[in-house]
Amino acid sequence: MKKPKILVVGSFVMDQIVNPDIFPRQGQTVFAKTFRKAPGGKGANSAVAFRRLGSDCVFCCKLGNDANGALLRRVYEKEGMDTRFIATDPDRPTGLAAIMVEATGANRIVVYPGSNATLNEDDIDAALTSYPDALYLQLEISHDAVIYAACAAARKGIPIFMDAGPADPDFPLEKLPKLEVFSPNETECEIFTGISPSTPENCLRASLELLKRVDAKYIVLKLGGRGCFVCDGKYYYCVPSYDTTVVDTTAAGDAFTAGLVLHYLQNGSIVQAAQYGNVVGAITVSRAGASTSIPSEAEVAKFIERNDISFE
Ligand code: RIB
Questions:
Q1: Is 216 in the pocket of ligand 1 (CB under 6 A)?
Q2: 143-152: string of b/e by CB count within 10 Å (b at 16+)?
Q3: Of 42, 46, 96, which is best to mutate to test ligand 1, by the most ligand atoms within 8 angstroms of its C-beta?
Q4: Residues with Cβ within 8 Å of residue 117, at least 6 apart in sequence
């Protein structure tokens, strides 16, 4: 598939980012060196990644009728996305995220969903009229909207990919139809399975546990600096990461999964797709911000050439 059209049904929030040297402990107050406001949201970050990496991207989400909503809509129009299915909630504000990024690049995030919570079946039905080649979901909108979108796409024979963030232990994984890929990060994996993917053995145990609850062709565990772990229930692969300077890990998972999905749709090999996702993730962590840190297709190609990476 040359240039797939990917429908992202997901969240769109305005990130408020502070950079303290260390995270405060309970009851502690610390100072931040910088404050920034930037476009974010797991859905939006992945949509930006799909677009910058060279696919057609249709983005379905819900904004508030406010200044943040208007600004974010302009940002995504400029990215060249199909924004016809970005709806507006007249009553709720655009979602917000409070993000702390400490000196190591690690982050802690609290999301106020705002208008994302009211994305509904009509919005999703409208977006599905765009005839996508694939549907891409995360869990930052309502459980009902996620299940509805997945089931509607499955009825139409559209392949479904899911990034498992943010993990809610009450999310009814069993209600999802057949997925191509289900991809949690380390924390999300532990929330869903009770197993920390700290060793290859634990990654395998956690993946097999997930496969009991999720009807997915592949589980892809995102392991940060350790790369990722791919499992189809029969075979597994540890796919190492690439060396980089970690500045800010925000949106790296969103960008990784988008890169993986796009490469998989174009080439069909999940292991090569995981390598490509690792490159996208490595560049994203080397820069500050959420969607601001996501690389273009040309930047990824340059990284691959400079580091002499061959896809096996
Ligand atoms: O995955 C990173 C994103 O999570 C941030 O952009 C923030 O908006 C939260 O949704």
A1: no
A2: eebbbbbbeb
A3: 42
A4: 92, 141, 142
Q: Residue 132: which of 287, 306, 261 has the closest Cα?
A: 261
Structure tokens that stand for 55 in this block: 């696919």
Q: Is the CB of 40 under 6 A from ligand 1?
A: yes
Query: Which residue reads 């009229």 in tokens?
Result: 129
H runs (alpha helix) in 129-199: 143-155, 186-193
Residue that is written with structure tokens 């989400």 in the block? 61
Give me 67's structure tokens: 């200044």
pTM (global) more than 0.85: yes
- Distance in angstroms (rounded) separating the CA atoms of residues 76 and 79: 5
Read off the pLDDT of residues 247-303 as tens digits, 9 standing for 90 and up: 999 999 999 999 999 999 999 999 999 999 999 999 999 999 889 999 999 999 999
Residue in the structure block whose two tokens are 């395998």: 204
Written as one letter, the residue type at 168 is: D
Amino acid at 96: L
